[in-house]
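step: validate -> pass
step: tokenize input -> pass
step: predict -> running
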Amino acid sequence: MEGNGGKVVWDKNSKRKILKSEVIPGPHPIPILGNGHEFHKIGSEAILQKFLEYRKLYGPIFRFYIGSKMWISVAEPEILEVILIFFLNFGHDYRFLVPWLGTGLVTGNGQKWFSRRKALTSAFHFQILDGFVDVMDRQATVLAEKLKQMPENEGFDITKPVSLYALDVICETAMGTKLNAQNDADSEYVKAVIELSSILYQRLFSASQRFDLIFKCTRAGRRHDELVKFLHDFAINVIRARRKQLFGDVNANQIDATDDFGIKKRMALLDLLLKTKINGIPLTDDDIREEVDSFMFAGHDTTTSALSFLCYNLARHPAIQAKVYDEICGLVLDSGKIKIKQFSLKLFPRQLNELKYLDLVIKESLRLHPPVPFVARKCSEDMIFGGKIFPKGSDISLAFYLLSRDERFFKDPEKFLPERFDLNENPEKLHPFAFTPFSAGPRNCIGQKFALYEIKTAIVKILQNFELSLADDSFQPIIEGELVLKSQNGIQLKVTQRH
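step: predict -> pass
step: emit ->
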């Protein structure tokens, strides 16, 4: 691809064989380690800042090396648009996730991914998602009750209760299993997901551990295998129990028709997977486990990140928090008669969809703190983008985190300004690929509406019951970009009950 009057032209005819690119600027690599020694030296919390420095030095497109492997970082929306639409194969390093997630929606490529995506799209139909709001509402009520147990005027890390809320929601909606993680803060599943994610991230930026034989000989490699086995066993046990329940001796149409109170039950995503056929062939337990693990991975950590940083941004902007609270108080019940004054009332999808200002606040929080700061795609042939040569075999890092802080598209990018997404106040159209918190194109996040319902439900319950403030006026999160965006020192807040 090459720039032409601001447009991007896809040059499919480039036949050059290039071993490395001198055209794309970037930091000087050293033999064997590339630039990996820099990342190892500064630690994960400083890597995002290092990338921001690279962007300032080299522009929105730069290259760096991990070992001998070249990466090309792209934070240019016109180029992102073409890559996200046409380059569907994930980057080489997604292979590190395969032992855990298999080759399902998150890590799969080719025809298998396409068939799975097509088959599973119906699982996220709005009518099915609307049914999940009941689970989210119930679990968010538990979250609010847990926050009431926090001592007032004492700081605590809100990511911990939020993480357990997200885990309870995804476990019940994806697998139809009540994990009750919020009442079991020492959940082994939560610990396993957190520890495994950290191991995988450290491996990504380690020149030596990128080699499978070396990694397997390390303590981290052995622990990795233990954690993967634990998570697989957990998922398989749930799948087999649910399969037996659905397709055992009892008529599948009668199973779980109602709960103990005579209320019709919703179908879990697992139930849809158990009934899914691709080319007339049902999915095996391992096929389903790949997708269940993918749902758990993609739907737990990312939501925890998004919701935790949203709470942080509301806490440090009391006026914006008050405006969101006023909007919540303006909601009406389905009867259309009574405004929400009692803060234990059940929420419905229609009410969540009415929260237009909250939509702006969530977008701005996702801009400043995108849960997935980078996505990688594979360069399958020598290409030219924006006048720069992208060699075949290189991995392209789609740098959402860098793009969201680009002054060309976001004035005062470090400021929290929800109104920047209000088209009435800012009618100038933003490039559609300058802000893609759920990615974009054929491989966009299949569960983005699910995630937004989950985030909205939780924040409504929190603000109905509490005012959020920083644990200390000087508190700032130490941002680190692991597989998802996190704060190394947590999100330290205080909650004050409303009366």
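step: describe -> DSSP finds 17 helices and 15 strands in the chain.
step: cleanup -> pass
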